[in-house]
Amino acid sequence: MNIRPRRLRRTQAIRDMVSETRLSPSMLVYPVFVREGKNIAEDIPAMPGQKRWSPDTLPRVLEQAARAGIGGVLLFGVPEHKDPEGSGAWAEDGIAQQAMHVAKKEFPDLTVIGDVCLCEYTSHGHCGVLKGDTVDNDPTLDILAKTAVSQARAGADIVAPSDMMDGRVGAIRSALDGAGLQDTLIFSYAVKYASAFYGPFREAAGSAPAFGDRRGYQMDPRNVREALREAQLDVDEGADMIMVKPGLPYLDVLRAVKERTCVPVGSYSVSGEYSMIKAASANGWLDEQRVVSEAAICQARAGADILITYFALSLAEWMREGKL
Ligand code: PBG
Q1: Which of 23, 127, 137, 138 is the most buried (most CB within 10 A)?
Q2: Pocket around ligand 1: residues whose beta carbon is below 6 Å from it?
């Protein structure tokens, strides 16, 4: 008897031949922040290497995305004006809608995903409209649905509701269908935890809640069965794809959701994951390329069909160079 698993690891060629996890640029989604103004490409201090683009400079980064052959870009609008209802979210000339027009005009083949949420647009920074001090679920659904329709009309191929209101996927699906937008897909943030890892994003998008937190609508990190329930509901309401967020700290959730649903599943490696790796690498404490590659592999191994990551452009380049 001479059973030796090590034999399968003898050479790189053999390791590649028997690899259980294979990544490709087409599975990557790159989140991009778009702000109002002209000729702006503004650094985001808490996310080194990421910028807020104005609609006229946006093509610069979209060109990189298109050239990298990645699956798509996820657009976040950072508006100038905010109000209690988040009316900028569904304005025909809102910042996200402007970005979508630009993207579709300049790069018609690049898949455009619109983040659908109100927190960037509300003066109080919550993801829905308020009744007293709490988010009022049902009146928020209409607003989210209007937002999704306006994004689809502006050119979004996919809308991605990230608000975590109950029933929003169904509301968005029927509004899209009612507007003749049957082909617009819904990529639902079905399983989104109330996470401190979103810190840098809230700086980037100016979307920190003015009071309280999001624990009344986002999920409790202690729960996984609840994730399966959320995922199933979204699938039943018509989600075409779903995601788990954050990424690396929630691999057990990703695996469970993948095993129990039959739609494509994404893993969103969030701003805090990005900033941690950036900060440690800048100090020489971690090897950025190796850590980012390993993190991507681990999410794919755990079940992610799609990886949403601020490292998408770097990952695509490393894949092209055969480093991953
Ligand atoms: C909007 C939204 C958030 C993120 C994606 N969409 C912030 C939040 O829920 O507070 C976080 C993304 C990241 O941290 O990279 N609701």
Answers
A1: 127
A2: 115, 117, 119, 127, 162, 198, 201-202, 207, 214, 270-271
CA separation for the pair 152, 178 (Å, rounded): 13
Domains and CATH numbers, the chain: 23-320 (3.20.20.70)
Q: pLDDT digit string (tens) for 107-121? A: 999 999 999 999 999
In tens, the pLDDT along 206-249 reads 899 999 999 999 999 999 999 999 999 999 999 999 999 999 99
Closest Cα to atom 5 of ligand 1: 162
For 69-192, where are the alpha helices, taking DSSP H only?
95-106, 137-154, 168-178
Q: For residue 317, what pLDDT is reported?
A: 98
Is the C-alpha dihedral spanning 62, 313, 37, 185 positive or negative? positive
Residue 312 has pLDDT above 90, yes or no: yes
What is the best residue among 47, 117, 127, 201 to mutate for testing ligand 1's pocket, by most ligand atoms within 8 Å of CB?
201
Active site residues: 192, 245
